[in-house]
Design a protein that fits this description.
The protein is mainly alpha-helical. The protein has a domain of 215 residues: ADP-ribosylation/Crystallin J1 (ADP-ribosylglycohydrolase fold, Orthogonal Bundle). The chain contains 15 helices and no strands. The N and C termini lie close together (10 Å). The relative contact order is 0.19. It binds magnesium ion. Magnesium ion binds next to helix 3 and helix 13. Pfam families: ADP_ribosyl_GH (PF03747).
């Protein structure tokens, strides 16, 4: 039986992600120590990128670009998703203002290969060990809402920019956690997280990459780092979700760990938004997001696509 609640929750996750991103933007690159002296407790403006309060960055923009592509193409079209990433990168589409900021090195390399060298979308992504930043993990949440999404498709969407197997597995694990929250109401946060881990452990049991996820699998997360490595980010996200009991505390915890504040809070906020629901996201924070009406409208159209494809 298809769980209809699956498709009534798009704005929970997507607005959860965007609010987390915007909370982190003004303090990106600040250390955990600095933030412990002066923690973020609300939506603030200016700081790192000198943007007004409620400004989102690449994380939200690439998530919105992916949703827009899926709605327009009524499915997953890798070239079109890349075309929309190009529009974001070069024309600041999907940003609130008229400039793009905060693009990661791996993402910009992949986009340059796609545009400049006419490389097919599925071959544009970077595959090196050093290409395991959190730049695909931060934008794959919409896939959790797509009916019958399979692991190969999630891996391919990651691989448009981040094609190393570690990044791909992280994206699959993240989407599995989100899907668990969408499909299994009444489960605890631990049940969602570790049931998804169990699926990944089984599916990728022969992969040498799996060892990098062991601290997550074992909930061995006393000490985490906010740097932008995909595994570090995932460890921060799981820790923040497990040690807090509401959306606001989870995303503020993620921001105040420091360094890659926006992406850590975006990825955490996506899951916290789904788990606790849209109404749990502080309304003051949502209202600070410029162009939130356009986001909500896209969420509705995306939801309609998921609905029609049931
Ligand atoms: Mg960012």
């Amino acid at each position: 039986m298809n769980d209809i609640s699956n498709i009534m929750k798009v704005k929970d996750g997507i607005v959860g992600l965007i609010v987390g991103d915007a909370l982190g933007v003004p303090v990106e690159f600040k250390s955990g120590y600095d933030l412990s002296q002066n923690p973020i407790t609300k939506m603030e403006g200016y700081g790192t990128y000198n943007q007004p309060a409620g400004t989102w960055s690449d994380d939200s923009a690439m998530t919105l670009a992916t949703m827009h592509s899926i709605v327009q193409k009524q499915g997953i079209d890798y070239e079109d998703i890349m075309d929309k990433f190009v529009a974001w990168y070069s024309e600041a589409k999907y940003m609130q203002g008229n400039s793009t900021f905060d693009c990661g090195v791996t993402t910009s390399s992949a986009i340059s290969r796609y545009v400049g060298q006419n490389t097919p979308a599925l071959e544009s992504g970077c595959k090196g060990e050093r290409d395991n930043g959190n730049g695909s993990l931060m934008r794959v949440l919409p896939l959790a809402y797509v009916k019958d999404i399979d692991y190969e498709t999630i891996e391919n969407v990651s691989g448009l920019t981040h094609a190393h197997p570690r990044s791909k597995i992280a994206c699959v694990l993240y989407v599995e956690m989100a899907k668990s929250m969408l499909e299994n109401s009444g489960w605890t946060m631990e049940e969602h997280i570790f049931s998804a881990c169990d699926k990944i452990k089984e599916y990728y049991k022969d992969s040498p990459e799996l060892k990098h996820f062991e601290r997550i699998f074992n909930n061995d997360l006393e000490i985490v780092s906010g740097k932008g490595y995909v595994i570090s980010t995932f460890e921060v996200v799981v820790r923040c979700l497990l040690i807090t009991e509401n959306y606001a505390d989870a995303v503020l915890e993620a921001v105040n760990i420091g360094i890659d504040t926006d992406t850590n809070a975006a990825i955490c906020g996506g899951l916290a938004g789904i788990y606790y629901g849209f109404d749990s996201i502080p309304v003051d924070w949502v209202n600070e997001i410029d162009r939130i009406d356009e986001v909500l409208s896209l969420c509705e159209r995306f939801e309609a696509f998921c609905d029609e494809s049931q």
